[in-house]
Each structure stands twice: as C-alpha cells, then as structure tokens.
Amino acid sequence: LIVLELSDNRVSAELRADLGADGIASLACLPLIVGDGLRGYVAVCSDQARHFTSAIVRSTATFTNQAGLAIEHTRQRLEDARIADQRELLLKVSQAAGSSLDLGHVISGIASASMGVASTESCAIELYDHESNEMILSGLARLDDWVIPDDSLANRRAFGSWSIDQLVRAEGSILIGSTDDPRITSDMRADMT
Fold first, then answer.
1. Sign of dihedral through CA atoms 172, 176, 181, 186?
2. How far apart are CA 32 and CA 167, in angstroms?
3. Alpha-carbon distance 61 to 71, whole Å?
4. What is the pLDDT of residues 120-146, one digit of tens each?
5. Which of 155, 154, 174 lies closest to 165 in space, CA to CA?
6. Is the pTM of this model over 0.85?
7. pLDDT at 38 over 70
8. Is 24 helix (H, G, I), strand (E, B) or coil?
9. pLDDT value at residue 133
10. Alpha-carbon separation of residue 115 from 77, 120, 139, 143 (angstroms)
11. What per-residue string of b and e applies to 46-58 under the rule 16 or more CB within 10 Å gives b?
12. Interval 63-106: pLDDT, tens
C-alpha cells in the first residue's frame, strides 16, 4: 500500500485523522514475509506529500525482504539453540540414570539436571509406593531461596491427598500455571508453600 497523499480515497477518515495528527503526509506499507507467510509489514512515513517515488519504494522493498530473511535466520538460530539445550538436558538425565545403581543418587541427578528446563526454579520427584499407596518425595533440586525445604526429602503423603494425583494418573501430565488454579486444593497449596 502506497499512500502519496492523505486525500487518497483508500484512507478512511479515522486513519486520515490519526496520520495527520502524527504529522504523516504520505506513507508506504510493504509486507514483511518471513518463512512461509506474511508476518507483518514495514511502514515508512514522511511528513511530505508524494514523497515516495518508485525508487524509494523499491529500495524499501529490498530492505523489507532482507529484514524478513534476518528474522527467519534469527528464529532458526533460536530453534537450533532450543534443540541443543534439550539434547544437553537429555544427555544429563541419561548420564544421571547410568551413573549409579543407587536409586536415590540417580533420582537426585535427574532432579538436578531438570533445573536446566526453561529456567526452572525447583524440581520435586515423587515416587509411588504401591504397598502403602503413598507418594514419597524422592528427589529434590531447587534454587537456594525456593520454598521447598531440603528436609522434605523422604516425606510421604497418601496418594490422592493432592487433587491432581488422579488427573496425572489418568492424563499422564498436566500443566498448572499458578497456585490460583482451581484444581489445587487448600491442602495441596499448603504443601507447596
């Protein structure tokens, strides 16, 4: 879209007022293509009417194409870094699993390795004891100032005492975004803080 003058009939009265208030007399909007589709646009503006010649528009289009390539390249590098981080984490977990025949040591290593996941602040690993129908806190890694105390290791709680126990068993995994989640009971919230 190239608007050489605000009197252009493609410009709505509302847009005309907004552009005029900002001192814009002409503008060129060019699509920003990233990867496989339109991701936005680049708008160049001028306080002079009829400022944008075909040479300026071609130059801006070249710039916009390069910007799209740069954005795509950056996204690809971020994705590559994310994949590398995941592989490193999987290697750490694998190394922890193979480092010892002591289950406590292995679980502690896995909990520590998990701290590399998305700036995690803590990891608690509970194991289910079939004989007692209890969950046992078997592994813990946390930031120094995190709320779960170190002496919580080996604490037991009845399976089902947390409202999410059955959900995890049924669905495999769940995501809780905050302690305000309605699936969290007051008992569970008290255990978490």
1. positive
2. 44
3. 15
4. 788 888 999 999 999 998 888 888 777
5. 174
6. no
7. yes
8. coil
9. 93
10. 23, 5, 12, 9
11. beeeebbeeeeee
12. 888 998 898 899 899 999 888 888 887 787 777 777 777 788 88
> What letter represents residue 115's amino acid?
M
Count of all residues that appear for the chain in the document? 193
Residue given tokens 């907004």 in the structure block: 18
- Token match 């078997």: residue? 138
CA triple 146-151-153, angle to 5 deg: 95
Q: Which residues contact 59 (CB under 8 A, 6 or more apart)?
A: none
Contact 61, 44 (CB under 8 A): no
Q: Are 142 and 161 in contact (CB under 8 A)?
A: no
**97 CB-near residues (< 8 Å, 6+ apart):** 106, 109, 110
Mean pLDDT of 172-193: 78
